[in-house]
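User: Structure tokens for this complex, please. No commentary.
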Amino acid sequence: MATSRARVSSFSRNVSTVTSQNPGLKHGPNGTMLISSGIPDLDKILGGGFPLGSLVMVMEDEEAPHHMLLLRNFMSQGLVQKQPLLYASAYRDPKRFLGTLPSPASSKADKSSDLSHLTLTYILGGQQDYCNDFDLRKPLDRHFFSGSNVDCVCFKDSPNLSALQDRCAEFLAKLSRNEGNISSAGRIAIQSLCSPQCKYSNDEWHMLSFIRSLKSMTQSSSAVVVVTFPPSLLSPSCALRLQHMADTLLSVRAIPDEDKELTKLLTGYQDMIGLINIHKAARLNTQVPVILEATTFSIKLQKRRFLVLECLNQAPVDGSSGSSYSTSGGCSGSSKVGSLDF
Amino acid sequence: MKFPEHGFQLSNTRFAAVKVVLCNDYFETFRNNHSENLTAVPRQIHPRERSPGTREVGRIVIDDRVLCQRQIDGGDATHCLQRHMVYGSRSEGEWGRIGQVVKTNSKKKQKKQKMEQKNWNLLDESLGLHINDDAKPWPLCGRFVLVEDCVDTSAAFVLHHILKRSFSSHPSSAVLFLAFSHPFSHYDRVLRKLGCNLTAQRDNGRFFFLPMLMFQCPGEGKPNHDGLASVFEQIERVITVLHQDKKSISIIIDDISFLEVAANGSSDDVLNLLHYCHTLTSEYGCALIALDHKDIYLNGDRTAVILEMEYRADILVKAEPLATGLAKDVHGQVDLYHSALQISLAFKTWIATRFSLMVLNKETQHQHGNTAIKSYNFHFKIKENGIECFYPGTKIQ
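Assistant:
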């Protein structure tokens, strides 16, 4: 973005390597810098990670806290890389939430029994540090989040979002992008922005203008903002406006435990804990849309510890003679992520 | 390929009964774009019939009976029953009036024409931008172009395209850009890949960028003079200065939904601003191009803005994803209309049910006493250095 002045040529480098100065940053297409989402598979699906200066919106499933999985990994990844973090939620004591963050898998040997994990880590560009595998059952060491680079905000009792906006502005001002090099990246995680217990939750325009100004501030900084919101609690038009504002738009959905039809249709249905949908992938500095091979992925826990995303695979149907099922038709690009399961 | 209506200024309304003498290949494409009730009669022309200095290889006769009847009813019977049109060599597909087609004496000119043809695409053609005549004003002058899109398919590329065309086609054009959604660096990078240097144009005084990212109207209850009124004052100031330089000006707004958020959801304020901008199109001959997201309004919430915009728009461009889902080689469909108001409404509904990406160009040009509607539907693929437009099913890999 700001680097565009320095670079006069219209050709942009398309290198996708981890920069030497900071292992948490990677060059993306069109002169962007990427940071990891904390989930190796999601990084891979999105083409490397979240670009700095982008706004990521996650649409929650109101019946299940799957968005927290994404948020936790995103925050942990930043803390492990010692990136500044601002966490805002409607919890009374947001600091306590940091105690539930997952810890990076301790050593390679821990996972060596699992082939697919190893390959994933190696495919993701040589240096493991860009993106860690997080062990969801092991809490993050205290020293990662006891430092001064972590800031927590509770917006439950505040009458409007201007206090949060000021905190975000203050946070982003430190990370404002100047010409040339980007040395560090920041992360802002806002959980359940439009949750009904907040006083401003009736004022949709207020929330929209907050997100809009947050987006504008982020665009000129080297930070990534992840906001989760429950679309079903908002009016449809407001939810759509938020979706339009997002650079990267994801949605998570829980799946019912006993759905016999789906069990027949999809392989590994029992292991799935939910579905993630990628509606939009960020396209900063370009007009070409990102078209993914598949947009719906299943969320699974490998060994009950590691979060993995896999393409949906249609189960073999007994005695089928080429009949196709429309529910799984859109997810045919299955070879990429889940191929090692077979 | 350039279609014959440019020579003849024919339009959909008048194609009820038309006989076209035309080779079959041409006829197919021609019919797809106009009407089903055309009949084709291939006809080779004798070398002696050929106008000197041209490479004419065939001739079309358009027999326009319905048009003629209408005109008799209207008291204007002087128009000819038959219109003759020639077409050039098949490989190039050039069209013109008799004697006008492709003068062979100037090879340079030919090459230039060919180059220009290559640079046009269906979007240019449907917006009327392919008429590249320096003597005439910028084709969008005095027009209001509304671009609509949805979450799945962004139509920002249409704005980029118009921006690029406005700089490349007319030396005297200037653009005022109200950016509510992206910073300057984004547009600069995108346009640079399209072959247009916005920084240079800004320094030349042809590109005025109003960064509106952080613009927010003060809360309710306060006089809104600090709000959108001040924005309009800025716009007007720039326009009046540019108008003195006799430049053809385009105002581009990206996008209206952000403008609404900036105005704290006050539809009236937004409509007022857009109305004032629209008056500039008639007062100073500006073009107004605005992007909005149609899907926001589809559930019937606060539809005033989009309805009024659609009513006022001279050209409506709709971008939607393919009904069959996202694809790598086709990014979506466009429908475009030029039309007069009343007929266009009927046309709009017709197209809306048939296609997913649409450009509606409501052309209020009066031709032979009739108002004309043109509508286009095509698929597109967005690339870094431009867009590729093609009719459904005609994409050659």
